[in-house]
Design a protein that fits this description.
By secondary structure, this protein is mainly alpha-helical. It has five helices and no strands.
């Protein structure tokens, strides 16, 4: 609305075009700050054993992932897969130790599952490694075909 002095005023309780009252913005920013503080405190709550597990897990995953992806030798890939699974389990242990949001204690479930999946690989069975790799390839192929059938080309 034009008020006669060259300016316009919408007459509402908040600025025109914003659509959200400032009170809701302040509440949202406050909730985000509290969530950020909680996440930061989770890092401090993890403890020295959690950080040791995180560093060891990251080193195992980064050190073996390249060999796992492009590996022509079956026996070496077996060890790379074992180390990558154990590293992933250690990373999930760190997340559970710190109680990271949103699932806090639920991070221990994938850590345990990764360790259970890695257990048969420790005896050096190439058949187990081959079964794991073939299952992963079939799962990726299934996802590709499912996604590819949903995409329409024009």
């Amino acid at each position: 609305m034009y008020n006669g002095n060259g300016s316009s005023y919408s007459g509402g309780p908040y600025r025109r075009g914003s659509g959200v009252p400032p009170l809701y913005l302040y509440i949202g920013i406050g909730v985000l700050v509290l969530f950020g503080i909680w996440a930061l405190l989770s890092f401090f709550r993890a403890g020295i054993d959690g950080y040791f597990a995180l560093v060891a897990g990251v080193l195992l995953v980064l050190g073996n992932l390249r060999d796992l992806i492009a590996n022509p030798y079956m026996q070496r890939g077996n060890v790379s897969l074992l180390n990558t699974l154990i590293g992933g389990g250690l990373i999930f242990f760190f997340l559970g130790k710190g109680g990271f949001p949103p699932i806090a204690w639920g991070w221990y479930v994938p850590a345990i599952l990764l360790m259970l999946i890695a257990a048969p690989l420790m005896i050096g069975r190439a058949a187990v490694y081959t079964a794991y790799v073939n299952t992963a390839r079939r799962a990726i192929g299934t996802v590709k075909s499912a996604v590819g059938s949903r995409i329409k080309t024009y």
